[in-house]
Amino acid sequence: MSDADDWPHDPDGEEGSEGRRKYGHAVLAKKIDEDEDFPLTAEEYVADYGDHPVRISYEQVVSVEEIFENVEKEEFADFVEFHETLGEVMRENGYWFYEGAEQFVDA
What spatial distance separates the first Cα and last Cα of the chain, rounded to whole Å? Predict the structure, then answer.
């Protein structure tokens, strides 16, 4: 999906990245409730949000499903595990735009 008209909502709107204030990992995390949604399976998450846009950088938008193609973990016990897994997958697959991200890979 590359044409903005193909997305279920504007990646820079309130449903997407809050007017471009939230990118990548933050967009994925804000779709879930830390207290109510766990344990959570990758399959459930993709079924609910797979076609949603995630802005990776000022020029790249991908779908949630595209990011999850590289997730091997089937279930997340809690919010921390979800965060760690997705952060690692995004860095390993070029979906982490933040300058200096490489310094946190082995942290």
Answer: 33
Tokens 């820079």 sit at which residue? Answer: 12
Report the DSSP pairing between strands 60-63 and 75-76: unpaired
Strand, helix or coil for residue 15: coil
Q: Give the model confidence (pLDDT) of 7-24 as tens digits.
A: 666 666 666 566 555 667
- Note if the bond before 39 is cis, omega within 30 degrees: yes
The answer to whether 32 touches 10, Cβ cutoff 8 Å, is no
- Encode burial over 83-95: b for 16+ CB neighbours within 10 A, e otherwise: eeebbbbbbeeeb
* Short-list 57, 55, 59, 50, CA closest to 12: 55
Four-point Cα dihedral 59, 96, 101, 88, nearest 10: 180
Q: Is the pLDDT of residue 4 over 70?
A: no
pLDDT at 12: 63
Nearest to 79 by CA among 24, 31, 44: 31
